[in-house]
## 1
Amino acid sequence: MFTGLIEEIGKIKHISKGSRSFQFTIEAEKVLIDLKLGDSVATNGACLTVVSKNKSDFTVDIMAETVKSTNFSALKSGDRVNLERAMRLNDRLGGHLVSGHIDGTGKILSINKDDIAFIISIETAKELLNQMLNKGSVAIDGISLTIISVGENNFKVSIIPHTAGETTLLKKKIGDMVNLETDLIGKYILNFIKQNKNENPAKPSRLNMDFLAENGFI
């Protein structure tokens, strides 16, 4: 598990390509501290396993399923990536619970300045938008952010200067793809509601978004 608080921006040093898989070697400093073979590192939000390391970089394998769900196929040597080591149980949870399992990708539609903040609009699939709500959480390239609005084909987030400086998000261009992970707890609730409706189609469920809001869950 991760928190969505980026520890470091790493640089892709080398990419090895298989028929449908990749292997990234990533230059880093902070995340190498206490890092061991088999440890997990969220790379642009995707939980990847360390298969080798030395004093200046580490290497991860990326299987075909991960390639299909992420923006990794668009990355090249020299590109910067957001890095976060797996959280410890005694750490503060400053962001939100992030599994490192990418749900899909989104496309940056616009980046606009609003006083000290930057408002970023991202287009994505309806399936993912249905898992989002205003003031809910989303991880974008591994960054824990709060959603400020959800539209028909896009959603918006606002980032402060500190987040802008410590991550790669504002280094992106219009049209660039980003990795998305919707809120972990929200996905389980949504799945439970769907199953309840399927099992009892004639009996309306009391468990809905209004009920959750009234009782302080969202």
Note: The longest helix spans residues 184-199.
## 2
Amino acid sequence: MTVAAEQGLMGLALYFALLVLAVRALFRDAGRSPPRIVIAACFAALVLHTWTYADFLEDPMTWTLLGIGLALARQSEPARQAETAIAPKAAAAGAR
């Protein structure tokens, strides 16, 4: 409500876009990494908490959790890419 009152419809749309992108980035494949699960859960709890306490974008914990979560997600990307590159080669070798 505060975002809509202060920023208008455009600010509210950007706020929801930030939330959707952040949640998608933090929760995608987080089940494979306990630290990522913890960061994603903390971020979700912070979002829910700030819906009753209007300080989400100004809370340093928001940006800290988002930064750590994105860094952990990027760190796991090379491993995921290596898994997908190895799987087709192993399947092709097994078919011979």
Note: The chain has one domain: 2-88.
